[in-house]
User: Fold this.
Amino acid sequence: MTSDLFDAPELRQRWTEPLGPGAFVLRGFALDDEAALLSALDVVIAAAPLRHMVTPGGFEMSVAMTNCGRLGWVSDRRGYRYDEQDPLSGLAWPALPGVFLGLAARAASAAGFEGFQPDACLVNQYQPGTRLSLHQDRNERDYGAPIVSISLGLPAVFLFGGDERADKSLRVQLGHGDVVVWGGASRLRYHGVLPLKEGEHPVLGRRRINITLRLAG
Ligand code: MD3
Ligand code: FE
Assistant:
């Protein structure tokens, strides 16, 4: 028997789990900023709608994506890259919300990376069945900067692999409010997300949102 009181963000636990060299899961780190994160997310999505990009191989991604910040990650038949413009509108991406920047800098600092100032923010939306196959993030200029990711909504099983695609992956469950910092020797590790399981999150509904902040340019 649990009381609704234990679902209140201020009563949920926060702790740090080391994942690998330079990689840490900060459990519950985003919970204090839940309301501000969600309203900032609405502003971003209203200006640059979530959309399914096409891979260079011609497949539509099952993850729906958008971006904010100076640079946005895009994929099309020509390849993967960072671009200053939203290809849907031809306009600059919406500004990177202060609450994203502040949380990213505090999380990076908690993991030992001081002065993190991302210029790119990718928003990924997963619905039940959506997956992200194993890949490396290699489109950024400076691998010395960490990547910070914020998970909201339905829980997902994250695959944290090695430096080679064939290396065995660690399975890490990421839930609402968890923040992960990936830096140092973990920065180029293969990673992916298993198909999202069916469910209904009390705040986000039938979806998971992942906000990834990077220094790309
Ligand atoms: C580990 N997104 O957008 S974020 C991606 O949950 C991406 O939406 C996943 O992978 C998601 O590229 C995972 C966490 C993440 C980001 C970069 C990493 C994990 C990483 C780089 C190296 C190792
Ligand atoms: Fe990635």
